[in-house]
Design brief:
Distance between the termini: 9 Å
Strand content: 15-25%
CATH architecture: 2-Layer Sandwich
Shape: globular
Structural class: alpha/beta
CATH class: Alpha Beta
Helix content: 40-55%
Radius of gyration: 15 Å
Order of helices and strands: EEEHEHEHHH
Number of helices: 5
Number of domains: 1
């Protein structure tokens, strides 16, 4: 039972997919954010190819938990995706993911600030999906064993 994680950005949408047991998130690259139609078609291809049973979209909330501009964009895309596919689409609060990834990279002495930003973009979907999987592991395992 694979879960697809999406990190919605203006130019690129980060993609991560869980392993078959829903335990470990793996990076799967990006989809160019050309248009909603283009992105939805690419996501449908990934869903079919990877045997996805659920989608999770990262929503960057403000520090006080409210929804800002980027969070609103992610929630709007969630609605579009729910109309286009017949799978459950959930959200995950990713407000601290970029800072957490940046902190890890900085501690490792990994790259200058500009390069660090590029690396953050590459792993943001994986980081977000892993957080979701860790938090929801019991629920996912129950589903897997019921369906298995």
């Amino acid at each position: 039972m694979r879960v697809l994680g999406l990190d919605i950005e203006e130019k690129l949408i980060g993609i991560a997919v869980s392993d078959a047991l829903g335990i470990v998130a793996q990076r799967c690259g990006f989809i160019e954010n050309r248009s909603k139609i283009y992105v939805v078609e690419k996501i449908k291809e990934i869903i079919a190819e990877k045997d996805i049973v659920q989608v999770v979209i990262g929503v960057p909330l403000n520090l006080n938990g409210s929804i800002g501009r980027r969070g609103g964009i992610a929630l709007e895309f969630k609605k579009v995706l729910e109309e286009a596919i017949s799978l459950p689409v959930d959200t995950w609060d990713e407000r601290f993911s970029d800072k957490s990834i940046g902190r890890v990279l900085a501690q490792k002495g990994d790259a200058r600030r500009r390069k660090r930003k590029e690396k953050i973009e590459k792993v943001a979907a994986q980081w977000m999906l892993q957080g979701y999987l860790d938090k929801n592991r019991n629920e996912i395992e129950e589903y897997y064993y019921e369906e298995g």
